[in-house]
Design brief:
Strand content: 15-25%
Largest sheet: 8 strands, mixed
Structural class: alpha/beta
Strand order of the largest sheet: 1-8-4-5-3-2-7-6
């Protein structure tokens, strides 16, 4: 994948350097410098940086038997080498490479990771001379991301991914400086997440006994990602997309033959959701929790005599019942001290009734991002179809033409925290 990304960068614009994504600012010269395969990273030390130095030495020098080079060390200066990984963590860096040395400066280890990634893209192996080289030095690069949230969604409900595969995917994110995995961990097809509080959800709802994630598995993935500067935002979709829940807990579903949306008429539903969300919080470190909320068809509620009676008793339409459900789930997330994110149906249905902390995840084309940001809400942009990665008819060039801030004022654009490609199925 890394070689394909770099090839794409080269093909996209032949005059640009093979750095992915293109830095904000850079200058370069015309001199080729040889790099010693024993290159060392010196300067700031921390547990995270030490691991990163080792990873990037392997990534920089995959070929054995290379000739010695003149560039033998890279000086790294990081203000905080043990910074906490949160939305908005500083990822800026500078990188200078010349015949006389290599220097990296960053405010956090996450910026240093990006600098080392950029360095690894500049260093190439010359098969004619059996030497590693950096062409076109001196390089002076100043870089920082345009958006603080850059995600790829992985859907492990429809297509279970083993832990090793998830780690390989996370590693590949770092090649393009993607900093978030949106883990759509469960859906109506299967429930692979092993909740310690409600173990029957996975025991009964997973595809098989082998296609499940333990609590420790999730913690392991989160830590693996953290060490590489990648946040893990988990999505537990409610009240729709939840048929797999009913195998282990039929009491929270409308009926044995009409499974979703989840039953709003019983506190058992919300008690389970609260315990489940707390389990996810205990396994993760991010402050954002995705509650889904999309594609809710309330037909099963109106077909259920008990839920219909409950709606009438509370003088609600089915759509108002949906609003009630979303409100309670949002409150659960807020009470846990996290920030709720939801698909844009919540904005379409409820608009400014939503708690102002809620992040709107736009996936429908249209004016949702404009409307939500104009009202002061933050937005993640993943407009279908072009940013849905399972729509294979769209090339990477088309994806790169998408801009979350088209038609937005500068003030509105400042509330777009980022976006990402959604890989369903």
């Amino acid at each position: 994948m890394r070689s394909l990304m770099l090839l794409a960068a080269a093909v996209g614009c032949a005059a640009d350097p093979n750095i992915w994504p293109l830095p904000r600012q850079y200058t370069n010269g015309t001199v080729t410098v040889t790099v010693d395969p024993g290159l060392s990273f010196t300067g700031t030390q921390s547990a995270d940086l030490t691991m990163a130095y080792g990873r990037y030495k392997e990534q920089l020098f995959p070929h054995t038997g290379a000739q010695a080079g003149s560039l033998k060390s890279c000086q790294v200066t990081v203000a905080d080498g043990s910074a906490k990984l949160v939305l908005g963590a500083d990822e800026s860096y500078t990188l200078d490479v010349s015949a006389t040395g290599c220097k990296i400066t960053a405010k956090t280890q996450f910026g240093a990771y990006h600098a080392m990634e950029t360095l690894s893209q500049l260093v190439v192996f010359n098969f004619d001379s059996d030497a590693y080289v950096v062409k076109d030095t001196p390089w002076s690069i100043t870089d920082s991301p345009r958006f603080e949230h850059r995600e790829v969604l992985l859907d492990t409900s429809r297509h279970f991914q083993p832990i090793a595969s998830l780690k390989n995917i996370i590693t590949s994110f770092t090649y393009a400086k993607i900093n978030t995995i949106h883990w759509h961990i469960v859906d109506k097809q299967s429930f692979p997440y092993g909740s310690p509080t409600y173990p029957k959800l996975a025991k009964m709802g997973a595809y098989s006994n082998f296609e499940r994630y333990s609590q420790q598995d999730v913690k392991d993935v989160v830590e693996y990602a953290r060490q590489r500067g990648v946040r893990v935002v988990v999505e537990i979709d409610t009240p729709g997309h939840a048929a797999s829940w009913c195998k282990g807990h039929p009491e929270i579903c409308p009926s044995p033959t009409c499974l979703m949306p989840l039953n709003p008429a019983t506190n058992a539903t919300f008690d389970l959701i609260k315990g489940l969300f707390k389990d996810v919080q205990d396994a993760t470190i991010d402050g954002i929790f995705h509650i889904g909320g999309d594609e809710v068809n309330t037909g099963c509620w109106t077909k259920s005599s008990s839920i219909s009676a409950w709606l009438q008793q509370h003088n609600m339409t089915a759509d108002q019942g949906y609003e009630y459900f979303v409100g309670r789930v949002t409150d659960i997330v807020l009470d846990l001290g996290m920030i709720p994110t939801a698909w844009d149906e919540l904005w379409t249905h409820f608009g400014t009734k939503l708690d102002k902390k809620t992040i709107i995840h736009q996936w429908h084309n249209g004016t949702i991002a404009k409307e939500a940001t104009a009202a002061g809400y933050r937005v993640v942009w993943s407009s279908e179809p072009t940013w849905y990665l399972d729509h294979l008819q769209y090339t990477w060039q088309v994806l790169y033409q998408g801009d979350p801030c088209v038609g937005l004022t500068d003030a509105e654009c400042s509330l777009v925290i980022g976006g990402g490609g959604e890989m369903w199925g």
